[in-house]
Structures are given as structure tokens and as C-alpha cells.
Design brief:
Radius of gyration: 17 Å
Number of domains: 1
CATH topology: TIM Barrel
Number of strands: 8
CATH architecture: Alpha-Beta Barrel
Largest sheet: 8 strands, parallel
Structural class: alpha/beta
CATH superfamily: Queuine tRNA-ribosyltransferase-like
Shape: globular
Number of helices: 8
């Protein structure tokens, strides 16, 4: 099975404890601007860095000048700003991002099932809720993304978020290269085993958890690491 690289949404206080279980660092720009400890942690890390563009708890993209403040310190790749149901505005932001950071450092986000993907670069990102309403069950959301992945063979694809671990069983092609998710960590906070996850996902995991310094007792620590290892096995990664 092909290996898909894993990055995780993680609270500041827990970053050290997942270091060996991530293939790249998935960084919330909004949090990095407000939390010097979070920013400093990533500044001292050598793994590839991928910068998320959204304001925490608001679900809207940050202005490019705010993203650039963090990029100037950390470098790495940038996920271009995107707006749900608005592929043209999203593409315009992608072009602006390419001018600001260099096309080779930008991943555009698809926001339409019939979008002209050839106008983007070699790598694109597909959100977990592409073309979906919040109330729709995870199976419907996953099916849309799976069909889009099939259409994009030949491009490198980053999966933005995860509907359910069962979605990962469908990505056997060479196109999917990376995934970011906070689901295994959020479930550990809630004392839940990811193998029993049956819920319908509506929001990004990082909007639903304490991203600062939540209590990490021994049982939560073990559950968190086991949840992550389960995802890594599904991705074909070493554990």
C-alpha cells in the first residue's frame, strides 16, 4: 500500500508527545500569531511545514499579510485561502498567494465538483466537506471527495481533514500524498477510541478542542498515541 504523509492538529502543550508520529508539521497560522510558544516549537523543527490559512474558531481565511508574517519565520508550504461554494474567489486567492509566496510553495484548494483543476499547480487540496452541507452524513461527504480524487489522477492531492477513518480505505491510487487531521487527538480528549468512531463530522477538529495546554493524563496519552497509530496504519505509514 502507498504511504500517505500525516500531519496533525494538536494543542501546544501536546506537540512534543506526537513529534515521532507525524511526517510533517501542520501549523495553524492564526494560533502561531497569538501563541509564541506554539510558534517557537515549529521554528526549531526540521520536518516539512504546511501552513493552514483559517482563523481558529471562525472558519474564515486569514489575510495574506497575516499568513506571510508566519511564513517569513517558518517557511514551508501554504494552503491558499478558500471559500466554501465559491471556486472563483478561491482561485483568485490562489493566484494572489502564488505571487506572495511563489507557486512552488502554494497548494490551491478545490471548492467545486466541476472546477477546472488544470488551472492549479501540480498539487491541490480537497476539503473533507467539498460541495457538502454540514448536516449531510459523513458517507455523503466522503463519497464526493473520493470521486474527486478519482478525477484527479496525475496530480498530487492533499486531504484537508478527515470525515471518518473508513474513508481512508478508498485511497489506493498514487495521487493522495498527504492528510491533515485532528480527529485522533480530539477523540482522545473525549476518552474515545477511534476504532469506535461512528459520528457525522460537521466541523474541523481544531474548532472543537482546547488548542492550548489541556490536561494530559497517562490514559489520555496512551489513547491519543494509539488513535494516531491506527490512522498511520491505514495510511500505510510506519508506527
Amino acid at each position: 500500500m502507498q504511504t500517505i504523509k500525516l500531519g496533525l492538529d494538536c494543542p501546544t502543550g501536546w506537540l512534543f508527545y506526537i513529534e515521532d508520529l507525524v511526517d510533517y508539521h501542520y501549523i495553524l497560522v492564526d494560533k502561531a500569531l497569538k501563541d509564541s510558544t506554539y510558534l517557537k516549537y515549529f521554528k526549531n523543527r526540521d520536518k516539512l511545514k504546511l501552513l493552514n490559512n483559517r482563523a481558529v474558531m471562525q472558519g474564515v481565511p486569514l489575510p495574506l499579510d497575516e499568513i506571510k508574517k508566519v511564513w517569513d519565520i517558518l517557511g514551508g508550504q501554504v494552503i491558499a485561502p478558500d471559500w466554501m461554494w465559491d471556486p472563483e474567489r478561491t482561485f483568485n486567492a490562489y493566484e494572489d498567494c502564488c505571487k506572495a509566496f511563489g507557486k512552488e510553495n502554494v497548494i490551491g484548494v478545490l471548492q467545486g465538483m466541476e472546477e477546472d483543476v488544470d488551472r492549479y499547480g501540480d498539487e491541490v487540496a480537497i476539503p473533507f466537506d467539498l460541495g457538502s452541507e454540514k448536516e449531510e452524513p459523513w458517507e455523503v461527504k466522503a463519497d464526493r471527495r473520493i470521486r474527486m480524487v478519482e478525477k484527479l489522477k496525475g496530480k498530487k492531492i492533499h486531504l484537508l481533514g478527515l470525515t471518518s477513518p473508513r474513508e481512508l480505505e478508498h485511497y489506493g491510487c498514487d495521487s493522495v500524498v498527504s492528510l491533515n487531521t485532528g480527529l485522533p487527538i480530539l477523540l482522545a480528549m473525549q476518552k474515545k477510541d477511534i476504532r469506535n468512531f461512528e459520528e457525522d463530522k460537521r466541523d474541523s477538529a481544531y474548532h472543537s478542542m482546547d488548542m492550548d495546554f489541556p490536561l494530559l493524563d497517562n490514559s489520555t496519552y496512551k489513547l491519543m498515541r494509539e488513535n494516531i497509530k491506527i490512522i498511520r496504519r491505514l495510511l500505510g505509514c510506519e508506527v
